[in-house]
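Section 3.1: Structural characterization of target chains.
Under the original work plan, the team committed to producing a structural model for every single-chain target entering the pipeline before any wet-lab resources were allocated. The record below documents one such target. The sequence was received from the expression subgroup and is listed exactly as submitted; it comprises 509 residues.
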Amino acid sequence: MKHKIIVVFFTLCLVFIGFILSIVDKQNGQFRYQQHLEQPSEKDLGVCKICEGKSDLCTHLPIIRIDTNGQKIPGKPIYDKSASLIGYEKGIYGEEEILVSLETIDKEGVWHHSTDKPTKKLNALFHIRGNTSRNFTKHNFGIKLVDKSNIENSISKPLLGMSSGKKWNLHGPFLDKTLIRNYLCMNIAGQIMEYVPDVRFCELILDGKYQGVYLLMETIDVQEGRVEITEHEQGHTATSYIVSIEPNADVEKTVDNFTKYTKRMEESSKLQIRYPTSSKITEDLKKSIEEDFSYIERMLYSYSMADGSFNYKNYIDLDSFVDAYILNEFTALNDMFYASTYFTKDVRGRIKMGPVWDYNNSFNNYKHPFESSGFLLSQRGWYGQLMKDPEFVECVVNRYKQLRKDILSEQYLKKYISDTINWLGSSIKRNYSVWGYTFSPDNLNTFELRRPPIYDKNSTIYDINPSSFEESVRWLVNFIDERGRWLDRNIDSLYQYCQKSKKSAQIME
């Protein structure tokens, strides 16, 4: 009898372990906490017994309260008379960040109210952040948790159920009228790639004023639970690093890499060192990163890459480049190799593409419309060189076909969108009680418009600015359908980039 019990027990254990492995299996996706699946909906909670729906703010989402104590928030862009960016506004004492108090209200399985006692009470340095988004009325904010008695001393704390961190971003969906693109894409990417910053929906109250639905996001930093690479040792020139391609890079942190000085990079973009941090960057360290990164670029653009004698797989992590390409090509994200394009390298390892970041403009939500057809990134940046290798192309094609069976399938994505919107519930209506005016193009400045309406010869208006939340969601779903179906029909044509032409074959002979 005991023997049978033991057998049953171990059988159940094996089944359970198999189930867990099926969730975490890298081939079929990483394990990823997803807020709309893990947290109760409004329907689950039922009527609030405390306020019975009569509170100014009664929500199932977490609440973040920030008090600036009347200070001016730095970070808004400043333009000259010719509309050229000349800098960013600072605080009244010239500071780039201001000290604020930050409170979270995020108890498990209960309604939250604007007047509730905070779950956490912290101090933070605060500023407006972003590139184009700095021009939006609904700002994105950068947060750095600090010790109030010594703001030079940053502290690491978990927020809204995410891993402990010092820096956080508050993303305010503005151009994305569905409110969900970053949540959707970051979580989809997080089921595919090694590390993708975690995200949580919340509602923001700033200086007592309701600001709508926001997305709290982990930043790309070197620490446990985020980018886990060997930390830099002061005095060493050989180092792990994170770099990114940005249009408005900090000049003090930029390097003159190969594709920059040979003009193969977008003219306005630069390669910026993100890690090690500014205080640790020396000229020797900067030179070391520049040479290491440029060596790979130089070889990718060399004849050795074209004839196959350069084994790039000794220097770059193939899987990360394949996955990043598929995600950004599928979502039609035009930023790659222009903005928010990250690379990480452990001092002992190969360079990886990622972590991925900022899908606000994905799925045809850019300032100019994209067709759902055509390859957007196959010849962009390093990918133009990698596509010359049949093995790389084969990896892309096979991985794409695999992902389309589950995580990138129409059925999965449609359900994900529907479930997320249903879970957000009345928070969507509250958000647009503040920002509903943005559905009228006449109320927006040129930065806030995707593009002004177009008139054809018959005076018919073609407007790519959605007129309602429902329309914005419908456009998103339709574009995903069209994009996926076009790629399904044409993904194999990527092999054209690794085929020798008759002329080149004759030259090689």
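Residues 1-28, 502-509 have pLDDT under 50 and may be disordered.
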